[in-house]
Amino acid sequence: MMQGHAINPHSVQVRNIHELYYLRTQKAQPKMEQSEKRLKKQLRVCVATCNRADYSKLAPIMFGIKSHPEIFDLEVVVLGSHLIDDYGNTFRMIEQDEFDIGSKLHTIVRGEDEAAMVESVGLALVKLPDVLQRLAPDILLVHGDRFDALALATAAALMNIRILHLEGGEVSGTIDDSIRHAISKLAHYHAVCTRSAERHLISMCEDHSRILLAGCPSYDKLLSAHQRDYYIDIIKSWLGDAVKEQDYIVALQHPVTTDIKNSIKIYELMLDALISFNKKTLVLFPNIDAGSKEMVRVMRRKGIEQHPNFRAVKHVPFDQFIQLVAHAGCMIGNSSCGVREAGAFGTPVINLGTRQTGRETGENVLHVRDADTHNKIYHALELQFGKRYPCSKIYGDGNAVQRILKFMQTIDLSEPLQKKFCFPSVKECISQDIDHILETQSALAVDLGGTNLRVAIISMKVYSYHRVHTSSQSDGEGKVVKKYVQLNPKTFEERIELILTMCKQAMADAVHLNCRILGVGVSTGGRVNPQDGIVLHSTKLINEWSSVDIRTPLSSALHLPVWVDNDGNCAALAERKFGHGKGIENFVTIITGTGIGGGIIQHNELIHGSTFCAAELGHIVVSLEGPECMCGSHGCIEAYSSGLALQREAKRLHDEDLLLMEGMTVNNKEQVNAIHLIDAACLGNSKAESVLHTAGTALGLGIVNILHMINPSLVILSGVLAAHYENPVRQVISQRALLSAQDTKVMVSELEDPALLGAASMVLDYTTRRTY
Ligand SMILES: [Zn+2]
Fold first, then answer.
1. Which of 567, 657, 679, 743 is catalytic?
2. This prediction's pTM
3. Cys staple from 717: which of 55, 405, 539, 722, with CB 3.0 to 4.6 Å?
4. Same domain membership, residue 440 and residue 374
5. 120 vs 3 pLDDT, higher one
6. Alpha carbon 173 to chain centroid, angstroms
7. Membrane spanning segments where (predicted)?
8. For residue 450, what is the domain's CATH number?
9. How far is the CA of 721 from the centre of ligand 1 (A)?
10. How many CB atoms lie within 10 A of CB 647?
């Protein structure tokens, strides 16, 4: 099975923190140097805005650009519904904000049906080339998923103008998705709002080094907006003097162009429900999409404009709109503002229909996807009105604009304009490249143990020259190409120093061994935060480290990505990639060495837990009393079955002169240890047998607990003592496990260096895969 080649991009997602780390390092690759080398010429940025919604996102960036005239030169192009009287002539907002509008393009073909939208795209395409040619911007900023934006992106892409697309990668569930993704395909750079939008773009084969996770620009202002104190005047100015904070509704429903009939019906039901709910309500006119005319007719037929509870308006300036949303008792409709901005204030939202299906939302949103009865909507109003939710930051932390400005400055204008798509590797190319033959993809693995510090070069594929033309390349096999072992120094500085020296030596050797080193994987004792590469807390074996950053010193000295995880987790990763765990969805690894550790693979992924202390299997407690454990507790399986525990018992027996059997010796230099105990038991020492029996039973009981907790299909025993425990563990399972767990397989690992192989697998898994 050629693992990693049959990847279906739709089924594979970024799932775990190791992978996320890699994506981050890819993104963070500094291009500052190049940008500094660039002539100190202003960056010509053209911002094109089509309607009030996109302006609300673009305006904060425009202000940011304008405030740095030494860096940027701003050009503003206005088109689309900004210039339409029925939609409030919203271009005036831009003038009020004191931006010079360089070009106004009338691009809307009236008619408000599907054909009119297409004609509008066509009209924009006819008018844009002239303007773009005249302005010749370095970068064109395009926002979102409107048809006007598609025209902009199409024109710019064909005219070799770099496009920065804002808010790509999101999913709403309508035709907007197709347009948004089409713009992403045309765009050269992306500034996205959310982590999952970023992942979507990556899985759409966009180059992740060109994706900026910025957050939503309108959030910057937003997050400070609702603290202002003049909001009550704003509320009164729109809804009358009698209205109170959190005692009114904001309604904003747009047509869904792919299902106009249904969206008009939902609109009707919403208005009915609002009439019977009997609260002050601000209704905004729908946007210009096909179907909007009909919705306005519905509104008029129901007399909304004359109704004492309602105020129907075409446009509210964004900063005032935000205040209105922030202090509303509830927001209803299908506007993206409801699922996005409202979340920042904790305003309750009722989302009607399918227009925002698939958007990431906070807990403030109540979906009425199938809004087919007045009753349902009314009930939703009853549930949501007047509630307050915790503020959500899914869409940003308030620093989006700064990030975007910085990102634009790092865009290298000398870089080839043609973007590259990062396709999943489909099939191994039949023709060979000399590098493929000579180089093997490899990793440096570091194992930080109690006594020894080990570094190894580990490669994934072992090509031999003669096997190149056969189909049986040993894909998926790990090979320790070269290993380096030193005593582990005492202090942190000495230790990092030594790791660096060993790694540098290994990298030099790797060149001659034709191993291409893709990164460094570190396996260490203790509790690890693999996201940040930090040892949070280690055992006495490595000097009780706490909050030690291993990643930064290594990655900055070696210029390679560095992964760090706990040795038990690494052993499980090793089994998943190279050992008995290959292709097994749920399994557990238990390492019995000096201590006892382990790793849990569930649904093919490692479990880290909420504070990274999942799979501390050595500290499963199997007795109320029991011997004291290194962790401070009593009766942990580590206190019964680890090498140290057996050594403790061996010493005890030896002191009482009960250990040694005929033919056994312990010379003065060596300490009595677990091996002596095992030897004695083999020779028939009943005391030693009994100690081992207890140890095996304790371990078996611990494993029975694991089986009952997570029900893996396989338990892999590894470490020096594994073979001795295989049978006792099987026996305890057959005696004590529930019937359904009795069939769980128990195997002894065949891997020689699980910690090193696992450390390497973190590197090889993420660096050799371009699809997620
Ligand atoms: Zn313990």
1. 567
2. 0.52
3. 722
4. no
5. 120
6. 21
7. none
8. 3.30.420.40
9. 18
10. 18
